[in-house]
Every structure is written in C-alpha cells, then in structure tokens.
Amino acid sequence: MQIVQAELDVAPADGGKMGQKRTETSTELLAALQKSAADAVKAMQQTTDEHLLTNWRLLARGQAVMEAPRYEMIQDTINHWAHHRGQMTVYLRLMGAKVPALYGPSADDSEFR
Question: Whole-prediction pTM value?
Fold first, then answer.
C-alpha cells in the first residue's frame, strides 16, 4: 500500500472504512495471504529507489498524522508490526499459554531445550 498509494486515511471524515473481506475458512485465509504477498512482491519489483524517496502520508480525518519518505514509512511499519508481535508474547505468557519461537528459541519450545 505504501508503494502504490500516496496516502491512507485511517479515520475518514465521511465515516468510511477500509474494505476488508472477512475470511471464514483457512482456505480463504491462505488465499488472501498468498494474494497479499504476491501484490507486495509485485509492488516492490515495479518500484524504483526514486519512488521510495517520495513522501507517503498517514492521515486521520484528512489531516496528516505522519509524512515521510516511503522507505522510512515502510521501515516504521515493519518495526510497528514487530512491536505488536512482542506485545502478543507478553499477553500469551500472562495467560499461561506457550510462547512460540518468534525471534528465535523460546523457553516453551522443547525443540530448543
């Protein structure tokens, strides 16, 4: 999205929302993941360094919340995902669930003991 679109408004003033199709089955989920991954690869293959230096904007109600070169916004997005993945492991631990080996061996993964 940050390559092919100029901006994203996460709270449009007209109350609109991003269209998301709900997946009901694992087959639908895998198909959606494969399409999304293929779209991302295609966008990366078709972009240029010059395009990645152009600004991308995150908006809320039409007002810029963040604006930076696309490559920075992509990097920040990936870091943001990693942050939330880290939060998830804390919640899993607090709930007494096993923590998967996301960043390397986990104390709960018997394969690494």
Answer: 0.72
